[in-house]
Amino acid sequence: DQIDTFTFQNQFLKAKADRFEEALKKNNEEQLKIAQAPYLHLEEDLKSLKHVLELKNHQIHKQEKKIMELEIQAEKNLILEEKITVLQQQNEELRARIEQNAVITRQLSEENANLQEYIEKEVEEKKRLSRTNEELLWKLEEETLSAPSTSFYHCSSVNSSPAKARTVRR
């Protein structure tokens, strides 16, 4: 009886141990699946991360290249700013020259106008003196025609030079 009881208990305990072992296996498998779950996609994640890393490296390379281009452009801009400063100074100098030339031009225009006025006065004076000379020559001729020694004065009046007329009269 005891053997049967022990055999029955043994079978019962074996069945229980098998069920427990099976449950433990299932539990271990589930826990293993649960534990492995984050790592199942590890290879895909690694590929994705490599791709993202390549993209980021490409962006960094582009940005570094753009930074170099901007630095070159900044250097060119500095050079151009210096040239602009020089050109602005030259422009100011040229403006000052233009202003000086304008002042000189105004002065020369005034002098020219004054000289023109002086020349016109001189021309008028010359005309007046010429008319006076002609009148005097005419009077001289008239006097010589009416005077007895007309041949001497007549010859001098033919030359009709005021200087000769004066020397003859003396």
TrEMBL record:
Residues 10-139 form a coiled coil. The keyword tRNA processing does not apply. One of its GO terms (molecular function) is microtubule binding. One of its GO terms (cellular component) is nucleus. InterPro entries: MTUS1/CCDC69 (IPR051293). Keywords: Coiled coil. The keyword Coiled coil applies. PANTHER family: MICROTUBULE-ASSOCIATED TUMOR SUPPRESSOR CANDIDATE 2 (PTHR24200:SF14), TOUCAN, ISOFORM A (PTHR24200). This is Microtubule associated scaffold protein 2. It comes from Bambusicola thoracicus.
